[in-house]
C-alpha cells in the first residue's frame, strides 16, 4: 500500500511559488521524492482555494499557472457534501471539547482538509 499525502496550503504555496527560495526548492524536492517513490500525492480543493485566492489577490499570474499545472500532474480532490458534513461534525466536536481550531466565524480550512482526508482514506489521519 502506498503512502497517501494530502498537501496543505503551506507546502502547496511553496511549490507553486515562482520565486526560488531555499525553502521552496527544498519543498519541491520533497514533493518530487514523494511522487518518484510511488506515494499518492493529492491536492485537496480546500488547499487549492487557500493558495489560489492569495495568488489572485496579488495578481501572481505565474503562480496561478504553476498551481494549475500541478493540479494536472497530481491527483485533485474536490470537496464533496460528505466531506463538508464530516467537517461540520469535527468542528462541532472540537468546540464541545473546548478545543476550537479557528475563530467561530471562520471557514476553518484545516478541519475541511482533515474531513477530506477521512472521506477518501476512511481511517485515522495523522
From TrEMBL:
InterPro entries: PIN-like_dom_sf (IPR029060). This is Nuclease. It comes from the Bacteria. It comes from Nostoc favosum CHAB5714.
